[in-house]
């Protein structure tokens, strides 16, 4: 790693056996970052370029925070190798169009699973702009809950949903949305981040009430500048690129079926890359 690198890992926290947090020192990016934006990261010189939504940024500390789920070759490699005091080879950003938070009077921010992390800057940004904020967070069970205190600090109300009912209310985040719409008929915006099936369900939950619903899309992305076309999505029957036109889009206009097809396009390649890496790891650790 070049001595002049600025991308030092200053803290790490593991939320589960698959989800972990990295706080990176990058003062310029921390000053420039806005809610809804993302970065492209390379963990080492020969690593894959992966897009990660900013989960937090602290201008006073000069740091950005990424919450990562180890599911493929690169993210598992990062989980295994990224430690406090290490450096990331490259961090490019902030990228994408910042989320619109000004002028919103009352909003619900909805995060499911890993989507809880990137919804936090949205909640904080809305609160800083004077909005009344209802946080709705979904987890499989109470053991996977994280950042509850951070959300309580910037939300006027917080609803936690768990699949098994071990914390908060039993059910999906759509149940939290339903209850929020009943209590707050003047709700004027919902922001949802999570798996595509969750975001689609959120958009359908708000469609009858015609509540503006923003979702953050996560298609395959390579360069992050609109040149490769890998992150093409269909919005209102028009082609958009998540990296430069998004990642935020009107959830009522997103073609989620097309998004799911694109997300499945490289599943076999991703599986093969993971198997090759795991095989190499076993060889590296073999006593002979």
Secondary-structure topology with pairs:
Layout: E1 9-14, E2 19-25, H1 27-32, E3 38-42, E4 50-53, E5 56-58, E6 63-69, H2 73-81, E7 90-95, E8 106-112, H3 116-128, E9 132-139, H4 148-154, E10 157-162, E11 169-170, H5 173-183, E12 189-193, H6 196-206, E13 213-216, E14 232-235, E15 238-241, H7 242-245, E16 248-250, H8 256-264, H9 267-284
Parallel strand pairs: 8-9, 8-12, 9-10, 10-11, 12-13
Antiparallel strand pairs: 1-2, 2-6, 3-4, 3-7, 5-6, 13-16, 14-15
Helix pairs in contact: 5-6
Fold and architecture overview:
With 288 residues, the protein is α/β, with parallel strands linked by helices. It has three domains: 9-95, Beta Barrel (Elongation Factor Tu (Ef-tu), domain 3), CATH 2.40.30.10; 98-215, Rossmann fold, CATH 3.40.50.80; 217-266, Ribbon (Dihydroorotate dehydrogenase B (pyrk subunit), domain 3). 31% of the residues lie in helices and 28% in strands. It has nine helices and 16 strands. The protein has helices at 27-32, 73-81, 116-128, 148-154, 173-183, 196-206, 242-245, 256-264, 267-284, and strands at 9-14, 19-25, 38-42, 50-53, 56-58, 63-69, 90-95, 106-112, 132-139, 157-162, 169-170, 189-193, 213-216, 232-235, 238-241, 248-250. The longest helix has 18 residues, at 267-284.
